[in-house]
Amino acid sequence: MSATRKAYRAALLHSLADPADVGVEASYEYFEDGLLVIDQGKISAIGEASALLPGLDADIEVVHYQDALITPGFIDTHIHFPQTGMIGSYGEQLLDWLNTYTFPCERQFEDKAHADKVARLFVQELLRNGTTSALVFGSVHPESVNALFEEAERLDLRLIAGKVMMDRNAPDYLTDTAESSYEQSKALIRRWHGKGRLHYAVTPRFAPTSTPEQLALAGQLLKEFPDLYLHTHLSENLKEIEWVKALFPERSGYLDVYDHFELLGERSVFAHGVHLCDAECQRLAETGSAVAFCPTSNLFLGSGLFNLAQAEQHKIKVGLGTDVGAGTSFSLLYTLNEAYKVMQLQGARLSPFKSLYLATLGGARALNLESRIGTLQAGSDADFIVLDYKATPLLDYRIQQSKSIEETLFVLTTLGDDRTIRETFAAGRSVHQR
Ligand code: GUN
Ligand code: ZN
User: Fold this and answer.
1) Which DSSP symbol is given to 193?
2) If I label 361, which of 63, 169, 171, 320 is the partner at 20 to 30 A Cα–Cα?
């Protein structure tokens, strides 16, 4: 009995709401000496250790972490599994970067053995960085998605992924057809969607690489199966936007292409959205669609600065994405460090609690999974991480100067990276220890 039950004692911090909606103070819950009780892969209780320990069954083991903070596992709302091997590729902006580096790298995933090898490395890298859930692009090859889901299933991760649909404006070796993309996606949905904690995302790469026929079939899949996700790119780069207008002159703009094919909705996640007009923001909000804010990618490819204030004004759901391999780190702590600077360049502030929200509950809401992940509330999946205040000599010394959890949180997002993640738990199981 007790094997499935365990308790963890440390400082505990989680988001309860978006600070933009309720103000900073009401947006989080913090226990300086807290206890998190786990039962059968779920959180069964959270509170002050002094309040919970006396009532805890004697047979429940209590693990005590010193100089550590437990938070929900991080949620990466946009990342490319087949781009792991090309992270940090020099010198290009989006469209040339795709042709020069991305497509040749993704080609290798026609080989299942290669996909298996990279899937293991990719999932380990997520867990090393404290990411317990992610919305993931595969390559055009169904094998890439099989490899990734097999690895995620082995570790019982909550993961969403899909095969890229791409039937034009890409090398022949990397294109499918409208019909084959539909059939292959359907087979993957039948095999994986709803299995354990896995979900499927219909994944047209972006409007320029899909014919109208393919986008129509993507919309058809969303209608045929319940609770599918839609995952694509939107308004990342100015040349890309001009290209979309040239390819779809009958549509009023980039988002309207996706809207026309009925791809917007509560489980639709659009990466970037760097150059959106107010009407597009309004449409994203009213359809319950989400945007993945990918600061390291937007800076690395010179795409532009995401306007978080505009997204907040329109009440668009926003999650955080690493966008590896255009993004330069798997770490959502490092990604928040860059997000803060993106805001500074626009004369705005990213508060530490908004950062926490973006990396956890905001991501969960973007994925329509807030009842399962993103907080430490009782009933949630036991996906959580242990952050180490002493991960590096500098972090240790800096945190010793900290006067509040707010300051400590800001320092963690400014200096933190994979070294800061002491341990990662998925569905109550330890899946990474540093
Ligand atoms: N737009 C279309 N494909 C991609 C991709 O692989 N990465 C990024 N950042 N943008 C894209
Ligand atoms: Zn991307």
Assistant:
1) T
2) 63
Distance 270 CA to ligand 2 centre (A): 9
| Region class of 334: left (phi > 0), else alpha (psi between -120 and 50), else beta | alpha
Q: What is the CATH number of the domain that holds 10?
A: 2.30.40.10
User: Which residues place a Cβ less than 5 A from the ion ligand 2?
Assistant: 271, 323
Name the residue of 233, 239, 247, 301 to mutate for ligand 1: max ligand atoms within 8 A of Cβ: 233
Q: Is the dihedral of CA 187, 189, 194, 198 positive or negative?
A: positive
How many CB atoms lie under 10 A from the CB of residue 403?
A: 7
Whether 102 lines ligand 1, by a CB cut-off of 6 Å, is yes
Q: Of the candidates 296, 330, 364, which is a domain's last residue?
A: 330
Contact (Cβ atoms closer than 8 angstroms) between residue 301 and residue 321: no
> Does residue 276 lie within any of the structural domains?
yes
DSSP notation for 100-144: IIIHHHHHGGGSHHHHHHHHHHHHHHHHHTTEEEEEEE--SSHHH
Overall number of domains in the chain? 2
Ligand 1 center from residue 98 Cα (angstroms) = 7
Which ligand does the CA of 106 lie closest to?
1
Domain contains 183? yes
Q: Are 145 and 52 contained in the same domain?
A: no
User: What SS3 state is found at 180?
Assistant: helix
Which two tokens mark 184? 């292959």
Centroid of chain to Cα 366:
9
168 domain-assigned: yes
Instruction: Quote the pLDDT of residue 3.
Output: 57
Which residues form the domain of 110? Answer: 74-330
**What pLDDT, in 10s, does the model give residues 345-387?**
999 999 999 999 999 999 999 999 999 999 999 999 999 999 9
| 321 in the same domain as 391 | no
352 in any annotated domain: no
CA R_g for the chain? 21
Query: What's the pLDDT tens digit per position in 273-283?
Result: 999 999 999 99
Percent of the chain surpassing pLDDT 90: 99
Distance between Cα 253 and ligand 2 center (Å): 20
Whether the model clears a pTM of 0.90, i.e. scores above it, the answer is yes
266 and 216 within one domain? yes
Q: How confident is the model at residue 4 (pLDDT cuts 50, 70, 90)?
A: confident
What is the C-alpha end-to-end distance of the chain, expressed in Å? Answer: 28
Q: Could you check whether the bond before residue 325 is cis, i.e. omega within 30 degrees of 0?
A: yes
- The reply to whether 28 and 170 lie within a common domain is no
